C-alpha cells in the first residue's frame, strides 16, 4: 500500500552515479533537504566502468575542446587534494609512431596541455628515449611523457554519498523512481524499494541525474519537456596479468586515430581500454563483445614485447556513457562535455536535467547545478566543495598516515594498513578503533578481506551483495575463487536474515 504521508524534501535526485552523488553532497552542504534514490547500487553502472582517470583528456585537444580540457585540468588538481586516499598522480608515456602523428603535432599537443594546466601542473611533459630494458618492442625508440591523475571511480561515488549523508541527505539505494506528477505546486513522486514497498516524496525540485537513463526517466515525469538528444556510447575494458613491473601508464595510438590506455591496476594487473562503440538497448545489459576484446589486444600486442592472448583476460567490464548528440560525428569524437537544463519557475515545480559529462568534472557540474537552483532556494548557502576533503581524506599524505596507523594498530600487517589507507583513508578508523587484536577482525574470507571490513561496508557504505563488496567497494573480486565468493554470499545472506535490533 502506498503511504498517505509523503516524505518532504527540497531536492529529489534520481540516479546514484557520480553526478547524482556529487549534486547530493553539494546541495546538502548548502543546507537543502535532499533525498537521492538509486535503483541499484551506488555507482553500479557507468560511474564504476570508467578508465579510472582524473585527467584533462589529451586526445580532446585534437577535437579543439580547449575549454573542456582546461576545466578538467583545473578540477584534476582540486580532486587530488580532496581525496588523497583514492587518487594519485600517474605518469603516462606515449610511444611515438611517426606515421600516426608527427613529432611536431605531439609536441604541440603536450605544450598546449601544459599551458592549459598552468598553475595546476603536476609535471611538465618531456621527450624520453626508450631502452632495450623496457616493455615496448625495439622498433619504438621514443616516448613522450606527461603526468595526469588516477582515481578509484566507484569509491569516489561512495565518498560523495557519504559526504551528502553527513550533511543530512537521505540516500535510498535499491529504490526505483516510478513516476512523478505536479500537485499543489510541488512534485509528488512515487518510489519503490527492493521489497516492493512504495513511498511518496513531495519535492520542490527533481534532479534527473540518471546518466544513460536520463531520457527514459523523463518519460516517467508528467509534463516533462522533450530531452536534449543523448548519444549512448559503449566503452569496454579488459584486465590482464601485469604487462610490465613499473608504475607508469601508456597511451597507445591506433591506425584509426583512437587511443587506448594501459594502466597499472591493483599491483598485479594491467587495465586496458577503452573502446568507443555506439550503443542501443538497455544500458543495464551492456557487456564487452569479442570484437572489442580483439581490438584491444591487437593494439596492445603491436606495442608490447609480451604478447597477450584472449585466454589471459581475467576480467572485463563495460559502461554506457550518455554523451551529447552531435550529427556526423564518430563515437570516439563525440564531446565529453555536459549540459545542465533547468525547467520551472518560483512556486512552480522545478526540474533539472543533466546531460553528458565525465567523471573528472563531476564536482564542477554539481556546483554549477546548485548555482542554477539557488534562485529557487534563497536560504541556500554558498558553494563549498572545492576546498573541503571528501570523507576519509583529512590527512596530509599517505606515508604519514601509514606510519600513524603502524603505531596506532601495531597488530595490523603492513599490507593491510596500506590497503586500508588507499581505500578508506581515515574512514578505516570506524571499523579498526573498536578492535585491539588481529583476531578481532573476524572471519577471513580470503585475500585480506575480513569480517570487520565487510560489516562496515554493509553498515555504513550501503553494500548489500557480494558484487557490491568485491567489485565496487574493493577490487577483491580479481582474486576471489568461486568458493570464496559463495562463502561471502552465504555470510551476507545470514546477516541479512537476522532481525533488526531495535
Secondary structure elements and pairings:
Blueprint (H helix, E strand, L loop, with lengths): L6 E8 L3 H12 L4 E5 L14 E2 L11 H17 L4 E9 L7 H14 L9 E4 L12 E10 L1 H14 L3 E4 L1 E9 L2 E8 L4 E11 L5 H5 L11 E12 L7 E5 L5 E7 L3 E5 L3 E2 L11 H14 L11 E10 L13 E6 L6 E7 L5 H12 L24 H11 L5 H11 L4 H4 L11 E3 L2 E2 H10 L5 H8 L8 H16 L5
Parallel strand pairs: 1-2, 1-10, 2-7, 4-12, 10-18
Antiparallel strand pairs: 3-6, 4-6, 5-6, 8-9, 9-10, 11-14, 11-15, 11-16, 12-13, 13-14, 17-18, 19-20
Helix pairs in contact: 1-4, 1-7, 8-9
Overview of the molecule:
By secondary structure, this protein is α+β, with helices and mostly antiparallel strands. The protein folds into 3 domains: 7-46 and 155-228 and 336-376, 3-Layer(bba) Sandwich (FAD/NAD(P)-binding domain); 87-150 and 231-328, D-Amino Acid Oxidase, subunit A, domain 2 (D-Amino Acid Oxidase, Chain A, domain 2, 2-Layer Sandwich), CATH 3.30.9.10; 398-496, Helicase, Ruva Protein, domain 3 (Orthogonal Bundle), CATH 1.10.8. Helix content is 29%, strand content 26%. It has helices at 18-29, 66-82, 103-116, 153-166, 214-218, 290-303, 362-373, 398-408, 414-424, 429-432, 451-460, 466-473, 482-497; strands spanning 7-14, 34-38, 53-54, 87-95, 126-129, 142-151, 170-173, 175-183, 186-193, 198-208, 230-241, 249-253, 259-265, 269-273, 277-278, 315-324, 338-343, 350-356, 444-446, 449-450. The strands form 3 sheets. Strands 3, 4, 5, 6, 11, 12, 13, 14, 15 and 16 form a 10-stranded mixed sheet that branches. Strands 1, 2, 7, 8, 9, 10, 17 and 18 form an 8-stranded mixed sheet that branches. Strands 19-20 form a two-stranded antiparallel sheet. The two termini are 24 Å apart. The mean pLDDT is 93.
Amino acid at each position: 500500500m502506498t503511504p498517505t504521508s509523503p516524505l518532504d524534501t527540497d531536492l529529489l535526485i534520481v540516479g546514484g552515479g557520480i553526478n547524482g552523488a556529487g549534486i547530493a553532497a553539494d546541495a546538502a552542504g548548502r543546507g537543502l533537504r535532499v533525498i537521492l534514490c538509486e535503483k541499484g547500487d551506488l555507482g553500479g553502472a557507468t560511474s564504476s566502468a570508467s578508465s579510472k582517470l582524473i585527467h584533462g583528456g589529451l586526445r580532446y585537444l585534437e577535437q579543439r575542446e580547449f575549454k573542456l580540457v582546461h576545466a578538467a585540468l583545473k578540477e584534476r588538481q582540486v580532486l587530488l587534494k580532496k581525496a588523497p586516499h583514492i587518487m594519485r598522480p600517474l605518469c603516462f608515456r606515449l610511444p611515438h609512431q611517426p606515421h600516426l602523428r608527427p613529432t611536431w603535432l605531439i609536441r604541440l599537443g603536450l605544450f598546449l596541455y601544459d599551458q592549459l594546466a598552468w598553475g595546476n601542473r603536476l609535471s611538465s611533459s618531456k621527450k624520453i628515449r626508450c631502452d632495450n630494458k623496457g616493455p615496448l618492442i625495439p622498433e619504438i625508440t621514443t616516448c613522450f611523457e606527461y603526468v595526469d591523475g588516477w582515481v578509484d571511480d566507484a569509491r569516489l561515488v561512495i565518498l560523495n554519498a557519504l559526504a551528502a549523508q553527513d550533511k543530512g541527505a537521505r540516500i535510498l539505494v535499491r529504490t526505483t523512481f516510478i513516476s512523478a506528477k505536479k500537485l499543489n505546486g510541488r512534485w509528488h513522486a512515487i518510489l519503490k524499494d527492493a521489497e516492493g514497498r512504495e513511498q511518496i516524496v513531495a519535492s520542490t525540485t527533481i534532479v534527473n541525474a540518471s546518466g544513460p537513463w536520463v531520457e527514459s526517466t523523463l518519460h516517467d515525469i508528467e509534463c516533462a519537456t522533450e530531452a536534449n538528444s543523448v548519444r549512448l556510447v559503449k566503452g569496454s575494458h579488459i584486465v590482464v596479468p601485469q604487462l610490465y613491473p613499473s608504475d607508469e601508464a601508456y597511451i597507445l595510438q591506433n591506425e584509426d586515430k583512437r587511443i587506448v590506455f594501459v594502466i597499472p591496476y591493483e599491483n598485479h594487473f594491467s587495465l586496458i581500454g577503452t573502446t568507443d562503440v555506439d550503443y542501443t538497448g538497455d544500458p543495464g545489459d551492456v557487456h564487452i563483445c569479442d570484437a572489442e576484446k580483439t581490438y584491444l589486444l591487437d593494439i596492445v600486442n603491436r606495442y608490447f614485447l609480451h604478447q597477450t592472448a584472449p585466454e589471459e583476460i581475467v576480467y572485463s567490464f563495460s559502461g554506457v556513457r550518455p554523451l551529447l548528440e552531435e550529427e556526423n560525428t564518430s563515437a570516439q569524437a563525440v564531446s565529453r562535455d555536459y549540459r545542465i537544463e533547468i525547467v520551472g519557475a518560483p512556486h512552480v515545480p522545478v526540474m533539472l536535467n543533466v546531460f553528458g559529462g565525465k567523471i573528472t568534472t563531476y564536482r564542477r557540474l554539481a556546483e554549477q547545478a546548485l548555482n542554477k537552483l539557488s534562485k529557487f532556494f534563497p536560504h541556500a548557502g554558498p558553494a563549498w566543495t572545492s576546498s573541503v576533503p571528501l570523507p576519509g581524506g583529512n590527512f596530509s599524505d599517505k606515508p604519514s598516515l601509514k606510519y600513524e596507523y603502524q603505531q596506532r594498530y601495531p597488530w595490523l600487517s603492513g599490507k593491510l594498513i596500506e590497503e586500508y589507507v588507499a581505500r578508506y583513508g581515515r574512514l578505516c578508523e570506524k571499523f579498526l578503533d573498536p578492535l585491539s587484536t588481529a583476531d578481532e577482525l573476524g572471519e577471513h574470507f580470503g585475500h585480506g578481506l575480513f569480517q570487520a571490513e565487510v560489516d562496515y561496508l554493509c553498515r555504513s557504505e550501503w553494500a548489500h551483495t557480494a558484487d557490491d563488496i568485491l567489485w565496487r567497494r574493493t577490487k577483491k573480486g580479481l582474486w576471489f575463487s568461486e568458493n570464496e565468493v559463495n562463502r561471502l554470499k552465504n555470510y551476507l545472506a545470514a546477516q541479512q536474515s537476522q532481525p533488526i535490533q531495535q
